[in-house]
Design brief:
The structure holds 2 protein chains of 2 kinds. Chain A is an alpha+beta fold. Chain A is 46% helix and 20% strand. Classes of the chains: A alpha+beta, B alpha+beta. Chains A and B meet through helix 1 and strand 2 of A and helix 3 and strand 2 of B.
């Protein structure tokens, strides 16, 4: 599973962590419904997660489209905006759990956050 | 009692479910601040904790999980002093019947393998959680 966060928002560590975990839980729950075996395999394999950075909203949405086209589980997190940023801001894109090869192909150019 | 309300009384969700809907439900993620982890590292560890806690809650208290998801899966992230502090909090939580989940890192990257990185508490009713986590600072 990869969690792709927007670098341009300048979130604090705690906020970033919470947003990423929103994405992670939503993706895991989606997998629990549609691809139970995949979820089990991922969990047994240490529930691997990586947090990556992306430049801006447009690149994030483009990537989300590509991931959906590749039939991967995706989830986009919109913040409720109670704290640091305006309501409805898109913060993180979660992709997976899914086959390593197809995810790597999409995100190989992104840097770790 | 009419037929309709009789059927309703049989099929209505259990009481604990209704009860928990009235109050705010949240999940608290306590990060071990003793370890010097990068932002991304923290985010991934907290993600581990949130997923494990969610799946655990789905097995042990599905009603609570449903209400938490329906109310926007509220999460907050706070600082814990060190591993011992996290373990103390875990003990406290268990004594109050709050679900807790510990995350140990595999240590592929920034920190020694097996370090206790995050403790997740809940999801549970806010008033119950705040008795434990009130004096912790936001991360």
């Amino acid at each position: 599973m990869v969690l792709i966060a927007r670098k341009d928002l300048k979130l604090s560590a705690g906020k970033l962590a919470v947003q990423c975990s929103h994405a992670a839980t939503s993706c895991a729950l989606a997998a629990n419904k549609s691809e139970k075996r995949l979820l089990e395999r991922w969990k047994n394999d240490g529930a691997r997660k990586i947090c990556l950075q992306i430049n801006d909203l447009i690149s994030l949405q483009k990537l989300a489209g590509q991931a959906q086209a590749a039939n991967l589980i995706t989830h986009i997190v919109k913040d409720a905006g109670h704290t640091e940023i305006p309501p409805g801001t898109i913060t993180v894109l979660g992709i997976g759990p899914g086959p390593r090869r197809s995810i790597d192909a999409l995100v190989q150019d992104l840097k770790p956050y | 009692m009419g037929l309709r309300s009789f059927i309703h009384s049989l099929t209505a969700p259990p009481f604990r479910h209704q009860d928990s809907f009235d109050q705010e439900i949240k999940m608290v993620l306590v990060v071990n601040n003793d370890l010097k982890m990068g932002k991304g590292k923290i985010a991934a560890q907290v993600g581990h904790a949130a997923v494990s806690a969610t799946l655990k809650c789905g097995k042990k208290a599905p009603g609570l999980l449903e209400s938490w998801l329906a109310s926007g899966q509220k999460k907050i992230c706070v600082k814990g002093l060190n591993a011992t502090h996290l373990l103390e909090l875990e003990k406290l939580a268990t004594s109050k019947g709050i679900l807790s989940t510990k995350i140990h890192d595999a240590g592929h990257t920034q920190i020694p393998s097996g370090s206790l990185t995050v403790l997740a508490l809940g999801p549970d009713i806010e008033s119950l959680l705040s008795s434990i986590t009130d004096d912790l600072k936001l991360l």
